[in-house]
Amino acid sequence: MQLRLSTWPEIEAYLARSTGILVPIGSMEQHGPSGLLGTDAICAAEIARRAGAQADILVGPVIELGAAQFNLDFPETVGMRAATLIHVICDYVRSLASQGFERFFFVNGHGGNVAPGNAAFQDLYAERSYAASRGNHRGVRCRLRSWWEYPQVGALRDRLYGEWEGLHATPSEVAITQHVYPDSRREMSLDKPPSLHDDYYRNFSNDRHYDAEHHRREFPDGRIGSDPSLATPEAGAELLHTVVPEVVADYRNFVAEN
Ligand code: NI
Q: Looking at CB atoms within 10 Å, which of 86, 132, 141, 204 has the fewest?
């Protein structure tokens, strides 16, 4: 069930049976020479759409833009500052909370959203924590889960692509977009990029990158240790089949928390 394809009486009826919602969040940024700019939002939206359809969960509007300043030296990247994204997430949650929604599960497609997302949640909780009177309302709860975090998904990515999964413009995310939009596939043979050291993962995973000029100098074609030419629509289907049940189970545990 998608919010943008629903009417208000249908949402009112949904609220009578659930106060939870899935929120896909991505980024509009380069994904290497062969990946779509909207890759992160496409992956998050498709995973949320399928989870919502399987388990009668409402899916909110996709947040298409993310925190991506480090990619601004590539043409077409549209990024938000961390502070802007925090405001967007807070107002998104406050809007729906004012109507009775209480549990917000963000399906995330972009590492750079992890820190601002979790900061936004802390600010939302602080509004209730600092309030003189907390009333009877339970207060909102939020969770942000990046789709690649689940162990089964990690194992599949490892089996499919091993080292060449890399950190950005990964064949896994490109494969999902190819499955969702088969006509969008760019056939391109790419050289293997330099291997990433363990230190790189420790220091820079979840997009803890420096500024845009530095980032483009370090990764001239946008890939970070990945070979997205290995992506296939079939692998995208397998990834979706693996991740969607994990999201449904994770969401159910989240909304059932005391
Ligand atoms: Ni991405």
A: 132
Which residue ranges form the domains of the chain, and what is each CATH number?
3-256 (3.40.50.10310)
Token duo for residue 255: 């909304």
> What distance in angstroms lies between residue 174's CA and the mean position of ligand 1's atoms?
8
For residues 120 and 182, what is the distance between their CA atoms, to the nearest angstrom?
35
Picking from 230, 19, 199, the residue whose alpha carbon sits closest to that of residue 105 is: 19
**What spacing in Å lies between the alpha carbon of 43 and ligand 1's midpoint?**
8
At 102-154, the pLDDT tens digits run: 999 999 999 999 999 999 999 999 999 998 887 766 799 999 999 999 999 99
Q: What is the largest CA-CA distance in the chain?
A: 61
Cα 137 to ligand 1 centre (Å): 37
**What's the 192 CA to ligand 1 centre distance in angstroms?**
18
Give the pLDDT confidence of 223-235 residue by residue, as tens digits.
999 999 999 999 9
Instruction: Give CA–CA dist 93/225, Å, rounded.
Output: 35
For the stretch 189-233, pLDDT in tens is 999 999 999 999 999 999 999 999 999 999 999 999 999 999 999
Q: Convert the pLDDT of each residue in 20-29 to its tens digit.
A: 999 999 999 9
**Alpha-carbon distances of 164 from 98, 121, 182, rounded to whole Å:** 45, 33, 22
41 CA → ligand 1 middle, Å: 8
Q: Which conformational region is residue 66 in: left (phi greater than 0), alpha (psi within -120 to 50 degrees), or beta? A: beta
Q: What is this structure's pTM?
A: 0.97
- Report the separation in Å between the CA atom of 145 and the middle of ligand 1, taken as the mean of its atom positions: 14
In angstroms, the CA 232 to CA 213 distance is 31
